[in-house]
TrEMBL record:
This is Cytochrome c class I. One of its GO terms (molecular function) is heme binding. It comes from Methylotenera versatilis (strain 301). It holds the Pfam family Cytochrom_C. The keyword Signal applies. Residues 123-207 form the Cytochrome c domain. Residues 1-23 form the signal peptide.
Amino acid sequence: MLKNMTTKFVIAALFLISIQGIAAPRSIELPEETAKFKESIHPGYIIAQQKCSICHSADYINLQPSGMNLKQWTAEVTKMQHAYGAPITDDDIKVIGQYLATTYGNEKLAAITTSVATTTPVASAIDVKTLLANNACLGCHALSQKIVGPAYHDVAERYRKNPKALETVMANIKAGGANKWSAVPMPPFPALTDAELKVLAQFVLSQ
């Protein structure tokens, strides 16, 4: 009888230990992003920084077969749009494909004639909705709740009493970076003009 009770206690204790191990909270720390897109004078370099890095690291490019040509790289970028819903336009696909083919593939930059459409059309009065859409801002941010990045309302609250709020948010949008809100990096947007940065920053701070 005593032996049976002892056995039951041992089994119960082991069960509780296993449950505690399963239920114990675990924290996962993401490694700091160190991979960068290869620099190039090709305009696709800036677009790749802005839009490709929204969904994956620059390391993903290095995992592709070496020596891919323009047609192959363009097909790969097209797949990102059609299969995965990447926030890129048809014009973006052409320009990014050219950048990848000349920087990571076997094409020569001088051999490719680039016809680059403006990726962020700007009218005389800059439309904030167009800027948000063309730069995929709403893929990571929402007005009042966190998605990948902070909610715009939370950003506005943080800088509400900061006399340099506008300049700070403009600089943060342009430079991107990590560890301001979380370890997840925000891509830089160096192609945005000061006027566009100001419109976006004013919109964020008005929430």
